[in-house]
Amino acid sequence: MKAIILSAGEGTRMRPLTLTKPKTMLPVAGKPIIQYNIEALRDCGIEDILLVVGYKEEIVKDYFKDGSQLGVNISYATQSKLEGTADAIGYGKDFIKDSLITLNGDIILDVEILSEIIEDYEKSKPDTLIVLTEVEDPSAFGVVELDGDKIINIVEKPKKEEAPSNLINTGIYIFNKDIFDKIEKTEISPRGEYEITDSLSLQIADGKVVKGHKTTKEWMDIGKPWELIEINEELLNHIEGEIIGTVEEGATIHGEVFLDEGSLIRSGVYIEGPVYIGKNCDIGPNSYIRGNSYFGDNVHIGNAVEIKNSIIMENTNVSHLSYVGDSILGSNCNIAAGTNIANLRFDNKTVKTTIKNKRTDTGRRKLGAIVGDSVKTGINSSLSPGVKIGVRSTIGSGVLLYEDLESDMRVLV
Ligand code: TTP
To answer: What ligand 1 atom has the least distance to the C-alpha of 79?
Structure first.
């Protein structure tokens, strides 16, 4: 069995973080999203992996190269136009040997789900195996109708009361070669894409065996910025602490803390794990690093800074007397002294943010800011809960930013 991972998307809901990186390369708990799946496939004995790339593909290729560092063989196919999942999976036609496991690059799966479905496929040898999961409201998903474990119909985004079941398609498949015949016959959908669910409907109509495999294990789908915070939190809860860098006398470490080589924790720093700190970071003195925080390589945190439940990407500085809570800071940012990111509304209501021009309730009572790469804040600036700042923008000293800022902008008063 070989594998294909779809990673060509633009990740528009994840902007501004995806203005400079593909979504699948955003880091969580120490590595890019897609690396979790590559390693899980490898741990299930799958060595040949095709990455379908497109948007900012050079970042993926430069990072993984031929995969040998991870013990796998990675090859690449460029999907130059995002023409849909069937089009993307179609690149597997000349790559497949007997069967092909297909994953979206923006989910994180654990090894257990993978080994469970591979075992089921090998035992029952259907033409296609689709992984299903049960949800309370299936109306935003592809919902399946089953006869035993055979899928007899897939309905896209039905009204809740008209849904044939509560079982939804997770987008994880194992195919044999028949799917490529159906992909070739798939017509463009009303939303202008070649959709793999249409190819699956052609398989069902052709009497092929499309088996549903219901899983109760967790799979995580990452589309919106706060989901990155949530997945980071979930993954950090499974890390094992290890101190490779240096901890000065007078620093306190509780819980699981991973400190990579070349990093320094200065005196007076108080860390409550789980916390993951990359290479060559410099933390403190006297800072408070709270649980579920992840720092990429070369992050500098100054004196008396408090960080909580946040992702801080590589080469970013947070200067003295700042507070960063429930937030994501991109790479190469400079957060000046006394910058405060609010993460809780006065009225205690859930935080809203804007996704593709639409106000969206995040469902989170606590959410700070989502900050793109290379942003600078001035001293004593304040950011309101849920604001997003585009890449390379500057917030002047003392500014209270209460709405989103586009990229390459300056707010001085
Ligand atoms: P989506 O979630 O539909 O797209 P996206 O990741 O670009 O995000 P957004 O909706 O925020 O713009 O795609 C699911 C996965 O499939 C994702 O990993 C990208 C990948 N994909 C391709 O590789 N090629 C395609 O043509 C499409 C539609 C998706």
So the answer is: 24
